[in-house]
Each structure stands twice: as C-alpha cells, then as structure tokens.
C-alpha cells in the first residue's frame, strides 16, 4: 500500500462531518466509513434516518434497526478503514453487548402467538360490529358496534406498528400483506406514511425540530421553545407561533382529550397527502388501492344504519374509542426531556432513554398497550417482538442504573397527569407577557379581564 492510499484510509470525525448533505452523505459504523449517497433513495427505512444522522457515527442506531444479515451489504459503500479518532463510550459498549446477547437468545426471531391472537381479535371485532349494524335494530347495539370498530382500529394500529418494525409473518411478502390489510384496508392509514413518520421519530426521539411526533402546532406545544417559531425538518415548514397558535396552546391542557378523540382525521389527511405527493412511496398504487378500499367498505357499512343520527353516533363512537390510542402515543413522550437540533449518533442510547416514558401495568394488560408500555425497551430494540419486551426490561433498567442514566416508568394514570402537567405548564407560558406574539382584536377581546 502506497503512502497516498494509506493517508486516505484514515478519516477523522472532522472530515466525516463535511459529508452530511443529500448529495454527499457519509456515515461511520464501528469505525469504518461508508459513502451512502446513492443508497439514500433505495434505503428500505426511507431517506430521513440517513439524512438526520449524516456525517456521524451511527453504529448504535444501525445495530438497533438492522439484523445481522445487513452487515454484508456494507462493503460496497466502504471508503475508509476507520476513523483516526474513533472512540466508543462505555454506555455504547454495554448496549451493543446487550443487543448481541438478545440476538444469541433468538428473541428477535421468536414472535410467540401474539400475532395470531391479534388477528383473531380483529376478525371477531369486525364480524360482531358488522352483525350489530346489519343484523340488529337496537340503538345500543349500533353504539356498541361503533365502539368495537374503534377497538378494531386500535388493534390494527398495533399490528401495523409491529409489522413495520419486523416481520410478524413467515415471509416479507406476507408481512407486507399484513401491513396493507391492517393499516390501509382496515384503518384507512397509509402504512408508507406511517413508516416514514415513525422512523423519523425513532431516530430523532424528542427533538423538537426533527421528531414529527412532537410537532403539533398550532394545537399543542410541549415546550416553550416552540414559541420561537422553529422549523420542522420533517414537514419542511416553519411552525409559526402567532396569535392563533398562542390562543390554542394557551388552552391545550383543556382541549387535549377532545382533540385526541378526533385525531384520526389528521392521520387520514396525512395519509392522502403522502400518497399524492412526489415523495417516494413503496408500491404506491397498492397503498392507494388499500386506502380506497377502506373508504368504500366503511361508509357502506355506516349506510346500513337507519338514520343520520345513528350514523353520526356510530362514527363518533369509532373515533372516540380510537382516541385512547392517540392518548397512548402522547403519554410516552410528551412529558419527557426534549431538545432542539439534529440527533447525535454518539449519545443515541442516552437520548432514547431520557426521551421516553414506560407505562407500568400487569401482564394481562399488555394487549391494551400494544407494546408501548415498554417504550424505553422498544426504542432501544425496535426489531424485538413485543412479547419479549417485558423480559428484557430488567436488563435495560440495570444498564441505566449502572451508567446513572434516566429510566422512567409510571402508571397509566400518573402518565396522564404528567402529560397534562406538561401541557398546562406550556399553556401558562404561552399566556405570559414574557413570550409576546403578534396579536389581533379577537385575541384581545377573548383575554380581557376586569
């Protein structure tokens, strides 16, 4: 090897950081540098995880999201032997060892019977709901059918979530079928939109400007930092804090549950926007067909109800029950630590633990939470089937204790209190004169006292 080749083989972190644009994107994994510029548009997890971690060491995120078989594909992107100043923290060393131990135990491949149980429950809920609508004339039965439809959407949401992280079926093709059926066909939600959104959330957990799960302006703001009108890199727009958003946020702790009852409308809208956008969508027409199928069978079922009053009651019941799941999504992160800026590869483990909240519950309630009750473990091991999250939780707790890291777990009710407390604190700051925003006559009239 000549001196010029030897010199190019070693790449410092400063040099790596220069290659952080979509047209020139390098990453480092276990000290080796890879040029993935041309791979971004083909990446199965979408472009955002690579763009958000561009120019950094991404080893922890890589081992979390990829099976062992993915390592063999890295060689074609190799550009340097190792970073000359490459270092691994003790936290990362222990985390990678834990990932390896879980893999040796075969837990990533043992999915249990939860998927079968979920499909059976979904089929039962759908069948009984249809029977109550078509086969009975009872008002209470029709109301119950609407509630069952809501529970069906919740269970289909858990199935879509799991199948988006790992193969819940015996083959990738059947797994894709499970995604389309549970997401697009049964729930009207584009699984492609959800995966793009959810992958960005996992990589940039609780980053105010990179995590879409915290970006609900103008309705909600979990931090007063939103009052600076920061830019969303997911939605590619400025989240403007103006008089309207200030008014809405000032009352967000009061409107939180009512809005969650109808949050599904936003998911419907985001799915349609994504499918009609110019963004890359895997099997776009397959996804569009699935969503169209939902908008055929659901209104058709509603049409069997005898009058518009009962039809409205059925739809509202469906949405309100599903609102439970939307509340669950918020509980895990709204009251946790947040930050502004791009996610960093060198503190990935720390960001996942400090930005998430577990919900303590008995094992018999696991079906209700769909795995989100072990949110810390799910973020650290996103490919791990939910039936094993309870088993690995003590190992994660010990690792956090060893390194004096934050590990938060509380009851469902306490998590609700914390979330409302976070929303109320931000609401009071929004009302404060210390955070001035453009005002109008409506704002002045609604906030005049005495």
TrEMBL record:
Database matches in Pfam families: Cyt-b5 (PF00173), FA_desaturase (PF00487)
EC number: 1.14.19.4
GO CC annotation: membrane
Entry annotated with the keyword ATP-binding: no
Gene3D superfamilies in alphabetical order: Cytochrome b5-like heme/steroid binding domain (3.10.120.10)
Record-linked InterPro entries: Cyt_B5-like_heme/steroid-bd, Cyt_B5-like_heme/steroid_sf, FA_desaturase_dom, Fatty_acid_desaturase
Principal location class: membrane
Residue ranges occupied by any Cytochrome b5 heme-binding domain in the UniProt entry: 8-92
Enzyme kind, highest EC tier: oxidoreductase
GO biological process: lipid metabolic process
GO MF term list: acyl-lipid (11-3)-desaturase activity; metal ion binding
Pathway where this protein functions: Lipid metabolism
Organism domain of life: Eukaryota
CDD domains in the cross-refs: Delta6-FADS-like (cd03506)
Transmembrane segments: 114-133, 139-156, 288-306
Family affiliation: Belongs to the fatty acid desaturase type 1 family.
PANTHER family xrefs: DELTA 8-(E)-SPHINGOLIPID DESATURASE, FATTY ACID DESATURASE 2
The protein's name in its UniProt record: Delta(8)-fatty-acid desaturase
Gene that produces this protein: sld1
């Amino acid at each position: 090897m000549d001196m010029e080749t030897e010199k190019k083989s070693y790449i410092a972190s400063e040099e790596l950081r220069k290659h952080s644009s979509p047209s020139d994107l390098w990453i480092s994994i276990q000290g080796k540098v890879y040029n993935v510029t041309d791979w971004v548009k083909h990446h199965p997890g979408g472009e955002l995880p690579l763009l958000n971690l561009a120019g950094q060491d991404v080893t922890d995120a890589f081992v979390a999201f990829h099976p062992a078989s993915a390592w063999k594909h890295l060689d074609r992107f190799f550009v340097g032997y190792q970073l000359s100043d490459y270092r691994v923290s003790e936290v990362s060393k222990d985390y990678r060892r834990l990932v390896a131990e879980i893999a040796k135990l075969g837990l990533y491949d043992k999915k249990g019977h939860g998927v079968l149980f979920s499909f059976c429950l979904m089929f039962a809920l759908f069948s009984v709901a249809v029977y109550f609508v078509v086969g009975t004339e009872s008002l209470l039965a029709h109301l119950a059918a609407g509630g069952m439809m809501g529970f069906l959407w919740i269970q289909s949401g858990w199935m879509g979530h799991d199948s988006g992280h790992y193969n819940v079926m015996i083959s990738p093709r059947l797994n894709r079928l499970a995604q389309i059926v549970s997401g697009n066909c049964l729930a009207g939600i584009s699984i492609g939109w959800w995966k793009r959104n959810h992958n960005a959330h996992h990589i940039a957990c609780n980053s105010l400007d990179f995590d879409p799960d915290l970006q609900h302006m103008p309705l909600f703001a979990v931090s007063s930092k939103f009052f600076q009108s920061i830019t969303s890199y997911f939605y590619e727009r400025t989240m403007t804090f103006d008089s309207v958003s200030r008014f809405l946020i000032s009352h967000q702790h009061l409107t939180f549950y009512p809005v969650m009852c109808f949050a599904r409308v936003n998911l419907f809208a985001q799915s349609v926007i994504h499918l009609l956008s110019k963004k890359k969508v895997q099997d776009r027409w397959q996804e569009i067909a699935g969503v169209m199928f939902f908008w055929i069978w659901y209104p058709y079922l509603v049409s069997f109800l005898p009058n518009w009053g009962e039809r409205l009651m059925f739809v509202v019941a469906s949405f309100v029950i599903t609102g439970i799941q939307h509340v669950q999504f918020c509980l895990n992160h709204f009251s946790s630590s947040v930050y502004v800026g791009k996610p960093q590869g060198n503190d990935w483990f720390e960001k996942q633990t400090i930005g998430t909240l577990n919900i303590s519950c008995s094992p018999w309630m696991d079906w209700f939470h769909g795995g989100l009750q072990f949110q810390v473990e799910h973020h650290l091991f996103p490919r791990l089937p939910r039936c094993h999250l309870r088993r690995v939780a003590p190992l994660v707790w010990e690792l956090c204790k060893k390194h004096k890291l934050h590990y938060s777990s509380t009851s469902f009710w306490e998590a609700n209190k914390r979330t409302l407390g976070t929303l109320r604190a931000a609401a009071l700051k929004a009302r404060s004169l210390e955070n001035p925003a453009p005002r109008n006559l409506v704002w002045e009239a609604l906030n005049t006292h005495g």
